[in-house]
Design goal:
Alpha-Beta Plaits, 4 strands, globular, 90 residues, alpha+beta, 2 helices, single chain
Length: 90
Amino acid sequence: MGTGAAQPRPDRAAGPVAVVTARVDRSRCVGSGTCTQIAPDLFVLEDGTARVLAPGEPGSRAVRDDDRTAADVEEAVESCPVQAIEGGPA
């Protein structure tokens, strides 16, 4: 067999991991903060407009295709009062 060392486990049992993307058009954003209330670990207000937190940035959630992330991005897109957010599966 082997040395008994634990083998690394993939994040998912099978298939590739898809990515969910989100983008804020900061020229359209009015800083309502709706997206930051929906997903504070995906969006942050900075200088009066929203931006997407980069994966690995302190306080951020890795933007992977899981039900919670996909639902939060979709809700943020639909809730933005000026349609400044685009997102979904990459």
